[in-house]
Amino acid sequence: MANNLKGCRSRLAGRLLLAAAAAILTPLLLNALLAAAGYGYASSFVRTEMSPDGPILRENSAFSLLCFRPGAARLPAAICVDTEPGPDAYRVVVLGESAAMGDPMPAFGLARCLEVMLQAAMPEREVTVVNAAMTAIDSSVIRRIAGDLPLLDPDVVVVYAGNNEIVGPFGPDREDNVFTRLGKARPQLTMALRSTRLVQFLRDVAYRIRPAAAGASWRGMEMFEQRLYEVDDPEVVRARERFGANLEAILDNAHHAGARTVLATMATRLTFPPFHPDGPAKNRDGESATEHPSAADAYAEARKSAAAGQWDAARSLYHLSRDLDRLRFRADSGIQEEIRSRAESADVFMDAEELFDREYQAQGRLFVDHVHLSLEGNLKLARAMAEALVPGAEFPEDRTCRERLLFTWWDEMRLVDTIHARLTRPPYALMSEAEELVAPLTDALRRLRRGMRREDLAAVRDYLAERAASNPRDVETAVRCGILMEALEEHESAEAIYRSLLAIRPGDRNALSALARLAAVRGDFERAVELFASSDPHNPLARQEACLNAGALAAEQGDIETADRWFARAEAAGPPSAMVRYNQGLLASRRGDHVGAEAHYRASLALNPSFTEARNNLGISLLQRGKRDEAAACFHKVLAVNPLHISALRNLAGYLQVSGNHREASEFLQTLSRIDPSWPYTSP
């Protein structure tokens, strides 16, 4: 009997071992088979690719799928360097988030500015600065990117990061699930799993079954309006600790790659108002959950101290306001301290926060928003880093650097236009100082647009085309040149630029999207859709978005019938889409079918109640149908969400004037005079 019992136990143990082995080996085998079949995408940040001149390293456009859903995936900056640096090469790699990347125009960001400075200081060397930063990532993702440093073989690694520890992909999460319970291990484990071909396959299957699970498209900082945290929230404290641990790992990776390291604190616009001015969260009894004042009160006191010339007090209060801001888009004092505490681990340490705090009176010129630097600001930071790396060298003046960067008045206009659009949307537009921030940009846009002539655009085009031809690997210049040629309707020349870019960088998303636009201009919408879809191969909604883009381009050309057909195909190509219904509403409005337009806009809002453009256009359709009070209610709802929505302000001002409410209309017109570059209103 005892022997039988032992035999049963032995057989049971054997079966359990076999089951455990199968559970482990089966996924490994499936993963190996999928990889052998060429399924999935590489998980490294850079990848090797053949070009006409030999093997090159370039960015992996699929990398961000390790930390984002396909709908909101971010693209790295363009990389195009030799796999083996030459004997005279001096290669620098910049790691960080959007501030390091140079958002909104990487062509004039820290990496390019640093390259110009270092090349001038070391004319005998072939200087290349690789922009390995990305928008919206956090230190956990940067740590993974740093693992690829040996492939890039850098001489120097610059680490400029810390703004996204709360709002990044692995920031605090209030949800309680198996992943959030993993704690500090969550980011690296999540990315490790998503790098396997088996998990990529399972995600693709899930997205095909339910395409909407791929996530909404990227909407910028508006996506994080509900992610509110107090300065001493335990999650914020843990995020700072995780940042410190990641920073150590990043510096270790850089040293193991044989590179010198430059570590900098984060420059934040000291005088920028808080995004969330309200005081701390309330408890159930309606009392403040902490002892802290509101960020708005600290900011107001800071401005008073600054106006009184009490700069030390003002600086302290500005820092306090930033730290108390519950929308944590800026590196707070805790993050800055984590960076400073690791100064000795770097070869060069730079206190960028201190450097820019000293220039508080010039911060409107040095920053374009809360953390992103202007060209002047990037040159200032790059100059300080270059001086530390090559002490005693001579560096060019800013004017010379601007010329070498090919920064033209056209680039200035595009940059100002982009920032103006950004600051007239939430969360910026919800600030009490929003108009104060936007007004100078409005004036600049009016000035730049007044001076725009076709012959001046042509001169810029020739300038960029010459430089693009002399350096085929300069992706940023090639793209800028192509965009300008499109604006001048020189479509064949633009196509040649984009095709030459594809010859060096097959699958380049900017080039494919541009060629899609040009195909639509020729009337070849089938080809346009194929190119649009191929530019985003990992997005399960790419076909729907491609059809939507084709319809929008047809509508721009006045081809209503073709636009209608492509919008219908977009509707059939994926799940119900607020954007598709919105565009169908625009088309109905152009036909004069305001009843149909109203129906489409209401359907769009049913799918996405926060879609302000659809609500604004619903108001316009209601006005056309004589439903003036309903229309006004729509415009008021839009302005409650975004007080600087230019079209809603125009529409509501017009409604009030017609209604005889000239006093209230005048208030809206005054706002438009400050924020709308095309508004002809002048004060009496």
Question: Any overview of this molecule?
Answer:
- The chain is 56% helix and 6% strand.
- It has helices spanning 2-36, 98-101, 110-121, 139-146, 149-152, 186-194, 197-209, 234-256, 295-307, 311-324, 333-340, 352-357, 363-366, 375-389, 398-404, 409-423, 434-450, 454-470, 475-487, 491-504, 509-521, 525-534, 542-556, 560-572, 578-591, 594-607, 612-624, 628-641, 646-658, 662-675, and strands at 46-51, 54-59, 80-82, 89-96, 126-131, 156-160, 260-264, 348-350.
- The strands form two sheets. It has a five-stranded parallel sheet, sandwiched between helices. Strands 1-2-3 form a three-stranded antiparallel sheet, with no helix packed on it.
- The radius of gyration is 27 Å and the shape is globular.
- The model has no long low-confidence stretch (mean pLDDT 90).
In short:
This protein is of the alpha/beta class.
Q: Order the strands across the largest sheet as they lie in space.
A: 5-4-6-7-8
Report on the biggest sheet.
Answer: 5 strands, parallel
Derived from helix and strand composition plus strand pairing, the structural class reads alpha/beta
What is the straight-line distance between the termini? 108 Å
Which residues form runs of ≥5 with pLDDT under 50? none
Helix content: 55-70%
Q: How many helices?
A: 30
Taken from the alpha-carbon principal axes, the silhouette is globular
User: Rg to the nearest angstrom?
Assistant: 27 Å
Say how many strands there are: 8
- The fraction of residues assigned to DSSP E strands is 5-15%
The whole-number mean of residue pLDDT values reads 90
